[in-house]
Amino acid sequence: MVDNPFYGPETQGDYKLHDLGNLILESGETLRGAKLAYRTFGTPNAEKSNAVLVTTWFSGTGKVMQDVYVGPDHALDPNRYFIVIVDQLGSGVSSSPQNTPPPQAMAKFPKLCIGDDVRAQHRMLTDLFGIERLALVVGGSMGGQQVYEWAVVHPRMVERAAPIAATARISLHQQVFVETLKEAITSDPRWNSGWYASGLVVREGMDRMARIVATLGRSTQFYQEERWRSVVGMSSLDDFINGVMKAYFEPMDPNVLLCEMHKWQRADVSRHAGGDLAAALARVEARTMVMPISHDGFFPPHECEADCRLVPGALFRVIQSPEGHMGLNGFEPGYMEQVDRHLNELLAA
Amino acid sequence: MVDNPFYGPETQGDYKLHDLGNLILESGETLRGAKLAYRTFGTPNAEKSNAVLVTTWFSGTGKVMQDVYVGPDHALDPNRYFIVIVDQLGSGVSSSPQNTPPPQAMAKFPKLCIGDDVRAQHRMLTDLFGIERLALVVGGSMGGQQVYEWAVVHPRMVERAAPIAATARISLHQQVFVETLKEAITSDPRWNSGWYASGLVVREGMDRMARIVATLGRSTQFYQEERWRSVVGMSSLDDFINGVMKAYFEPMDPNVLLCEMHKWQRADVSRHAGGDLAAALARVEARTMVMPISHDGFFPPHECEADCRLVPGALFRVIQSPEGHMGLNGFEPGYMEQVDRHLNELLAA
């Protein structure tokens, strides 16, 4: 286990841990003493019909969802909804390689898939809150992969689904890209097959990974227009790479990111229908709004649109953001305004 | 020096070497005994008005330009033109890290820039062939960077210019991307700061680089449609990554690729006008046809179009190719047909 304050309450704010006990994983392995980190906002109404589940993305935690997506000035308004933000497994805050005791610590932490997240979240929502209907499941990127999984696996429970900047089945292009990220970390000899005393010793591999994320995670327009000046207040390309991209990942745990990459690389709802994506997405009963980001290099709009055509009655709303995939963090003016407008439209439906 | 048969005539076919003697580089350093590899097709006419210069791209040599772009069935027809294909410096065939004797061998090979190529090529064309006018300068990717350099530095000598899949100034996005490629190689401890007995010992770093090239070098559509089946005859994603991407780079020399990356990352005609790209491109007198590839992740059409607007009278023709940047290799049906049509239009102008 690695004591990393980045994943503690001093950085992540107020969250609670729900103990699931043993969680049998899709792989057949059991994650013992599985814990989900969550935070709630608002109050369930009498019919428990106002619950909203918010999921998290690669490298992100419930904190960024709380800070950027939830509040009285947003569609996800705690005055109207009972909002549950849940950290994905392996996020560093929920059960993860660096916070799980032996014999499942570090490199021995089990391999997970998105289906494990949804099973864990389903147990938490039903056991802890008695929730049987979700007015909305919403999340971006890997959070969107969880949304698709929810909508396919629990079609009657999910009334509305909003996968943002995500596809229902990982593309082959993303499989290759994620592998380059994994190789950037695992090729650092100090990663040492996952056994290190502190994530900081794997800084070289983490830095290499951060730069690769920068190439597809931001659009060519973001660079062409030097938008780091206005969007994140950086003074040059190096300042941006060091001060934003590398600095963002530096406090994180390498095994946490690798754990998430494994899931990211394999997300695929078609496995519920023998590999038939159309058949899997045809099961969705939720009113679905597919929301790609216009300049996304991870989950480009044309791939999201292909999914959208397979979901009965799904709406398609493109969020305009020259920042690209990492626009998800909400730094760009106008980004959250669009998200809120689209989510309000969906919530009113 | 490394004896690598990949860069010899058994692989590269018939080429000649032109000895330039000492080449003073833009950096101030001198490349001693500089040699340019070239091959010619066709015959100069009496006025020497039919000369065409063909340049090479990253990892490519004159051989691929000969095989794919030149022939009686192409716009670059040896029956009409005197075609000179010249390998860029550092290509492995022209003077390069692995074929240059001490004290400039291997890691001590000087850092080059695109301006050095154009100066070397200019000397060769004038000294060896007495060429004073070029009916056309054409090349793709780094070859296109050379085309822009030619058109800006020798505006009266270049009658027509066709930069394919290239920009006149490297984008900041490409600077970051190329850095990820360099880091993939240089992080391999067996690269050993450039001192290795054979490029094959740096296979891990080279393989990591090959995978990163695969992410932006081919389009998301290429993966989505599994075009490796039809375009290059591969049976799966792994088969494609191993059998095409890694196999393509495996016989190459790591220092050669790093030498080219250094140039690729710095190509910028605006340095001739104090950083003012518009002023530099305004000097171009060549009839110019800017030819991006529709799905190019390296030099996207919108960036090429921005250059095009700055070149007086330039034409803009997008080559449709879902393969993306590496479509340059001409495997895709219809690719060369478009290139030939556009070049014929330009040559007729």
From TrEMBL, chains A, B:
Gene3D superfamilies: alpha/beta hydrolase. Pfam families: Abhydrolase_1. One of its GO terms (molecular function) is acyltransferase activity, transferring groups other than amino-acyl groups. InterPro entries: AB_hydrolase_1, AB_hydrolase_fold, HAT_MetX-like. Coiled coil: none annotated. PANTHER family: HOMOSERINE ACETYLTRANSFERASE FAMILY PROTEIN (AFU_ORTHOLOGUE AFUA_1G15350), HOMOSERINE O-ACETYLTRANSFERASE. NCBIfam families: PRK07581.1 (NF005757). This is Uncharacterized protein. It comes from Rhizobium loti.
